[in-house]
Amino acid sequence: MTSATPEKVGFRQRVRQIFQVFKFVRGHDRLIVPLMLAAFLVPLLVGIGVAWLTGLWVIVPLAVLIAVLATLIVFSRRVQKATYAQVEGQPGAALAVLESMPGNRNQRNWKFTPAVQVSQQQDVVHRVVGRPGVILLGEGASHRVKQLVSTERKRVSRVLTDVPIHDVLVGEDEGKVSIRKLQSHLQKMPKSLTPGQVGQIAQRLQGLGGARPPIPKGPMPKSARAMKGAKQQMYRGR
Known about the structure:
The chain is an alpha+beta fold. The chain is 57% helix and 12% strand. The chain crosses the membrane at residues 31-50, 56-75.
């Protein structure tokens, strides 16, 4: 009896979170309902049609599973699209997107240190340690953020002499990486470190210190939590 109660509470919390995410996305994406309906009905009706023609009604349960999976995939994609549109241009949006990367629940493959360099104009550099090495993630005007990245690169180089350091500027301008493509861009980078080395390198960089002004609050944190929560539920459901 005692062990069943936490499971029920956890399930209700997950359902409530998914519903809240759905309400958030529906407010920004009028196509989500018809697309989810289409994703569910098309494979279901095809499965029923094939079963009726062949007499193999065992196909119907499989069609239901495929329909549910297709609906979850569409939901996840629309959540991602709506959240990117909501956070784009907000200070700290890039880091929020990276923190929601799948397969990094315990920050084993990626370690994030926010706002290691910040300008008065809210240009910001985050430090990311991953299997590609150290990634300096810059957000802001190119001419200002490049100087911040250069400053942080010098600090990191004094601590690490044998680890690759990559500069990634986030934005829509030429030479920058769109926030919508940021996750895939980092995941495609050549891997130089093992997961164990990622943790060791991150610990060595903790000693750099330095003032880290807080990232301004706004709609970004709420949206980022929505995306992170939704993705966790989608990957659990698969």
